[in-house]
Specification:
single chain, alpha+beta
Length: 60
């Protein structure tokens, strides 16, 4: 997907360390910092993200 679109937003939570601490992930983000924009979701429970949680539950 990243190759198809010139600029992408990557939504990540900080619930699981591999999402944001894995060396492979950090290397990829650094390599593609011009075209890939990471957006970290807040760790606190926010009402506007409850819909996102419901989507994750349905996808599992």
């Amino acid at each position: 997907m990243h190759a198809k679109f010139p600029q992408c937003y990557l939504l990540m939570d900080k619930a699981s360390p591999p999402h944001y601490k894995l060396k492979k992930v950090l290397k990829y983000l650094k390599k593609n910092k011009e075209t890939l924009i990471p957006v970290y979701l807040p760790t606190t429970a926010s009402l506007e993200f409850m819909v996102m949680e419901e989507i994750w539950n349905m996808a599992q």
